[in-house]
Design brief:
Layout (H helix, E strand, L loop, with lengths): L7 E6 L5 E7 L5 E7 L2 E2 L34 E5 L6 E2 L5 E2 L6 E7 L11 E10 L23 H4 L7 E4 L17 E3 L1 E3 L9 E3 L4 E9 L4 E4 L3 E16 L8 E16 L30 E7 L3 E12 L32 H5 L3 H7 L6 E8 L6 E4 L1 H6 E14 L8 E14 L2 E15 L3
Antiparallel strand pairs: 1-9, 2-8, 3-7, 3-9, 4-9, 5-6, 5-8, 10-14, 10-24, 11-24, 12-13, 14-16, 15-16, 16-17, 17-18, 18-19, 19-20, 19-21, 20-22, 22-23, 23-24
């Protein structure tokens, strides 16, 4: 494809022959054409004044001499270069034939050698390139190498099992679970003041795949209160999420970074380095100091480029079996029509059963292979001093009021290793729908496998 090509709208006139789109393709990258708007009539005097869109007439076929004879009269057709073989475009979305290079041209399906002055109207299409598949072969982030101090694996406790890179990979011999068929789902409500969305909102639901990398900083972080200290053993993480289906398949849909903390309590070190006010290091503590007792020992800090920062607190638990994953809550609360959640519309609701319960994707993954052990991490912004902060636009139009996250680290060998990670995340959105605020759960779930180190 020509360098610098970007998605663009093109209007095709019915009273002209082949028309250049201004887009040159080289045959190596897919290009898609999708009808947007407009109607036209071909041979209007003979067609009872019934207009039609890019799929053409439902009553008449094109005659010999048309680019595609015996196909619908007035359908949108295309060719690549002046000598390229004509092909059907219609309403689409239609992917152009690969392997041909030249200027993309579009026309209406009629005998283009005739006088076209009686044709009326036009159609507009959107032409966009195939999205490049993301490279998931390398970690998103890495820590500078340092042997001393080493990564405090023991201090990290269960968080140590997160260190590494996680992606969607096939589970067992099922052939499912990879980037083309992940055990994931996103339920996303979006406000829209448009007659085509009568409830005042629509859904943008889809499956997705991701890359998630955790790294550990070398050493603990101390919070001091004068008589005691809290130590935070810390993981940094980077996350990139991509559409697994739909017209934007493989495009980046979400990016996020943050940290996971395991919080411990200890006595206050004496002086700046535990050696009083002498040179060097030591292990002395303040006389009679007392380790504080905090309610939560796990924290998650999140930064999202929509303009949201989140602090969620919680704890962890273990189990010697497969986890039981409860159904997710997805329906809004408030004076609003829940119709979009059951509407069988492919662009907005491609998998209705997962829309009803996104956590079913996690249960379906567990049915392939049941874990022997698990570690569950639960955090919420509603716990303790957790909080959510949003920029002004978000506060006014799609305020994030709460964040809840559970992940399950799962073992298949009795707890020696934990190569599978599942999570269910719910972000509570307060959306301005028509004349009032409505609370919507925005739920995401996924099943990931750790890449070999």
């Amino acid at each position: 494809m020509e360098r610098g090509f970007s998605a663009q709208a093109v209007t095709v006139q019915s009273n002209q022959g082949w028309q250049s789109t201004g887009i040159t393709v080289d045959g190596s990258i897919g290009v898609t054409v999708a009808y947007q708007t407009g109607q036209w009539e071909v041979d209007a005097d003979d067609d009872d004044d019934v207009p039609y869109d890019a799929n053409g007439s439902q009553m008449m076929e094109a005659i010999d001499g048309a680019p595609l004879p015996y196909k619908a009269l007035g359908a949108l057709v295309g060719r690549i270069g002046t000598s390229g073989q004509p092909f059907w475009v219609g309403d689409g979305p239609t992917t152009l034939p690969k392997g041909q290079s030249g200027m993309l041209q579009l026309a209406t399906n009629t005998d283009l050698s005739k006088d076209l002055s009686s044709n009326v109207g036009n159609v507009t299409v959107f032409i966009y390139p195939e999205i490049t598949v993301a490279d998931l072969s390398t970690p998103l982030v890495s820590e500078p190498p340092q042997s001393i101090p080493a990564v405090p694996t023991e201090g990290l406790g269960p968080l140590a099992h997160l260190i590494g890179t996680w992606t969607n990979q096939p589970l067992g011999t099922s052939g499912k679970g990879g980037t083309d068929s992940p055990f994931s789902y996103n339920v996303m409500p979006l406000p829209q003041a448009d007659p085509s969305a009568p409830p005042g909102y629509f859904l943008k639901n889809f499956s997705y795949y991701e890359e998630l990398t955790f790294t550990a900083i070398h050493g603990p972080v101390l919070n001091r209160n004068g008589n005691g200290a809290q130590v935070a053993y810390t993981l940094f993480y980077e996350q990139r999420v991509y559409f697994a289906e739909g017209p934007k398949k493989d495009a980046l849909v979400h990016a996020e970074n943050g940290s996971m903390l395991l919080l411990g309590d200890q006595k206050q070190p004496l002086g700046p380095y535990g050696n009083g006010f002498l040179q060097g290091e030591g292990n002395q503590t303040v006389p009679d100091s007392i380790a504080p007792n905090q309610s939560f020992n796990v924290a998650k800090q999140i930064s999202v480029p929509h303009g949201n920062s989140i602090l969620a607190l919680g704890s962890y638990a273990t189990g010697s079996c497969a986890p039981v994953i409860p159904p997710a809550t997805v329906l809004p609360s408030g004076d609003v029509d829940p119709f979009p959640y059951t509407w069988k519309n492919e662009p907005t609701n491609p998998q209705p059963s997962y829309t009803a319960n996104p956590n079913q994707a996690l249960t379906d993954a567990l049915a392939i292979r049941a874990p022997t052990n698990f570690i569950a991490l639960n955090v919420s912004s509603a716990n303790g001093s957790g909080a959510v902060s949003n920029i002004g636009f978000e506060q006014k139009y799609s305020n994030v009021s709460r964040y809840d996250f559970t992940c399950w680290l799962e073992s298949f060998d009795g707890g020696s290793s934990f190569p599978q990670l599942q999570y269910s995340q719910s972000i509570t959105l307060l959306l301005q729908i028509k004349n009032g605020l409505v609370s919507f759960p925005h739920v995401t779930t996924n099943t990931l496998t750790k890449k070999p180190s």
